[in-house]
Design brief:
With 393 residues, the chain is of the alpha/beta class. The protein contains 10 helices and 17 strands. Bound molecules: nicotinamide-adenine-dinucleotide (NAD).
Length: 393
């Protein structure tokens, strides 16, 4: 079988989820190309050799350019902060290599556009790790909408609420525009915009009424290098620095098909630890998803006699009827966060082998459309006006 030598750029939180995905995918899925965990890039202070040994990477490097351009590498997988996506991606594409990149596609719209254009003109296959598409419940929601089970969609209601960012959290890259581009917006609304575009199969044409707020405007500066989760291992000095991104962004939107939508991303929504949720209301039915109960999808079938209409809780991890699930455990033996990434690694292998993915996988072009919506919301927040997506190129 053809081998796929993967290079991973970054060894933080996403470095771990991607390492796990590449190590698991060939064990659970009948992959059409065999991923080889060839080389890990990490910063010297993070001890990439130890990370590589722990996760099963053959080689470790502190020189990302050498890794990305190495003739031995077949796929460049980027898991660094948002402003560190474009450079390795462009170098990989220039070297003719397929590239998978974490979300949001970039910290700035200009970067995202350059990445999409480069991939288009080079004809290189690209992928973005919008992993929630590959939760079986979200993939099922996509299928139900496509089958027409909801009829015409009227309302889309999406929130991604977290509560980890109190005053004790130092000025990590996620709080600096230079590194992140935006705060909760690019981090969390990016997922919501991608998921709702995917599930509805429709495009957002306009945003309006956006509000952005930064509650904590200064934070203690960090020391050292981080490699772990979102707040784990962060150490601070007594010196303070400015927070240059939002803590929360809310906005309204219209879809081409006529639906209206609301989006809300927050990092200080106390009591919501990872509240990634959406609800769709259509003329024939409705759907609700809540990542904190990710194995389930709620469905309301309004075509049933009124007397028996009600919300039904679908367990989305039983057997061959549900996307990806047959590859995992027996009926209703639940799956978790990491499985979405393994499912995505499988779809990347399928696309690279010339096969269709189980559900559509966003490439740089697709993720650029999400980035345009995010940018439109920021313009709406700054200028206090509705913004058509066509204005944002
Ligand atoms: N798909 C998801 O659900 C999800 C979840 C979290 C983060 N992300 C995305 O993944 C990316 C990385 O986030 P993370 O949480 O893993 O961050 P992290 O801080 O945990 O890890 C970032 C990694 O990049 C390295 N790095 C930092 N600055 C660098 C530089 N200048 N040059 C080279 N390497 C550098 C760090 O050393 C570390 O290895 C971001 O784009 C983020 O938005 C996606």
């Amino acid at each position: 079988m053809q081998r796929l030598n993967v290079a991973l750029i970054g060894q933080g939180f996403m470095g771990r989820t991607h390492s796990n995905a590449w190590s698991q995918v060939g064990k659970f899925f009948d992959v059409p190309v065999r991923p080889v965990m060839h080389t890990l890039f990490g910063q010297e202070a993070e001890n990439p050799r130890a990370f590589a040994d722990n996760w099963g990477w053959r080689n470790a490097s502190t020189d990302w350019q050498a890794v990305v351009t190495s003739p031995e590498i077949d796929l460049v997988d980027i898991a660094t902060p948002n402003f560190m996506h474009m450079r390795p991606a462009l170098e990989a594409i220039a070297a003719g290599k397929p590239c998978s990149c974490e979300k949001p596609l970039a910290g700035a719209l200009d970067d995202a556009r350059a990445m999409a254009q480069a991939a288009r003109s080079a004809g290189v296959k690209t992928f973005v790790w919008f992993n929630y598409r590959r939760c079986p419940a979200v993939a099922l929601a996509h299928r139900l909408v496509k089958e027409g089970r909801l009829g015409a969609i009227r309302h889309v209601r999406a929130v991604y609420l977290q509560d980890w960012a109190d005053e004790s959290v130092p000025l990590a890259w996620r709080f600096e525009k230079e590194w992140a581009g935006s705060g909760a917006h690019g981090d969390l609304n990016a997922h919501l915009v991608d998921m709702t575009r995917f599930v509805t199969g429709d495009e957002i044409t306009e945003v309006a009424g956006a509000i952005a707020e930064t509650f904590i405007k200064r934070r203690k500066r960090m020391t050292g290098v981080v490699a772990g989760g979102i707040t784990e291992g962060l150490q601070s000095t007594d010196e303070q620095g400015d927070v240059t991104v939002d803590d929360t962004v809310l906005f309204l939107a219209r879809f081409a098909g006529g639906a209206v939508a609301s989006y809300e991303a927050a990092r200080q929504a106390t009591g919501n630890q990872n509240g990634n949720r959406f609800e769709l209301n259509g003329t024939k039915g409705s759907l609700r998803f809540n990542f904190e109960r990710m194995n389930e999808l709620e469905f309301y079938d309004a075509t049933l006699p009124r007397a028996v209409q009600g919300w039904t809780n679908l367990m989305c991890t039983h057997g061959a009827d549900h996307p990806y699930v047959a590859h995992w455990w027996p009926d209703a033996h639940l799956i978790g966060y990491e499985h979405g990434f393994v499912n995505e690694a499988y779809d990347i292998c399928r696309v690279l082998a010339g096969q269709e993915p189980v559900v559509p996988i966003p490439d740089f072009e697709d993720a650029y459309q999400t980035q345009r919506v995010l940018e439109a919301a920021l313009i709406s927040a700054q200028q206090g006006r509705p913004v058509k997506i066509d204005e944002v190129k």
